[in-house]
Amino acid sequence: MTERYDTAVEQWRSAAAPKRHVRGLLKAMAAGIERCMYCEDSQGTDIDHFQPIAHDPLRAFDWLNHLLACSHCNSNTKGRKYPCDDAGACLLIDPTTEDPAAHLVLYLASGEYEGITPKGMATIDVFKLNRPTLVRGRRAAFVTAKNLLWGWYEHRQAGRTDEAEEIVEAISESPFSAVVRAIMTLPTPVARTVMGAGTLPAMDEWRRHMAAVPSPRTGPGE
Ligand SMILES: [Zn+2]
Prior knowledge:
With 222 residues, the chain is mostly helical. It has helices spanning 2-14, 16-29, 71-78, 118-127, 132-157, 161-172, 177-184, 188-195, 200-211, and strands at residues 46-49, 66-69, 104-107, 112-115. The chain binds zinc ion.
C-alpha cells in the first residue's frame, strides 16, 4: 500500500500537462469566477482529491475524484480527512453525485449551514463551512442577491433586456452561488417572510427565465 501510495503521489506530482488540462476543465465548470467548490468564496487554485490519494492511490487520476478547491480548503481544512461510517461509506457530501440540499440547510438571514443528516454534519465539520468569514460572506451575498433580483425584475418589466441580462451575468459570477440556489428553493410561505411578499413575482419570473437557459456541461467531453 505504501509503495502504491508513493508511486501515485510521484506520478501525480510530475503530471504537469494533465493537471493543467483538468484544472482548466474544473475552472470552467466551477460556479462564480473559478470559485472553490467547497467554500464557494475563494479562487479555486488546487485540484483536490475528494478521496485522498492516501485513502485510495488508484483514484489519483480519476476525473470524478477531482474537485477545484482553494488552497485554504484543500490544505488547511480538508487535508487528508475522509471520514467514513461503520459500513465504510464516505461521510462527506460528494458534490459531483449528490445534492447538498438533501443534507444541508442554509439559513439565509444568518448565513449559517445546519447539517440535517450525519453526512451534512460531517461535511460542515471537515470543511469548516461555518467559519466566520464564510458566514459573513453569505449574509452579504444574500442582501446583494435580494436587491439584484429586485433590479432585474424591474428591468424585465420595463423591457430593458440588456440591463436585465447584465444582472443575470453579475449574479452568475458572484461567489456563494448556494445563496441564490437557496433563495430560489424557498417554500412560498418562508419566501414571503424572508424575501418580502413583493419579491415573490420576481422569484417566479427568475425561475422561469433560468429554466429556459441551457445548463453548463458536467464533465469532460460532454
Ligand atoms: Zn475554499
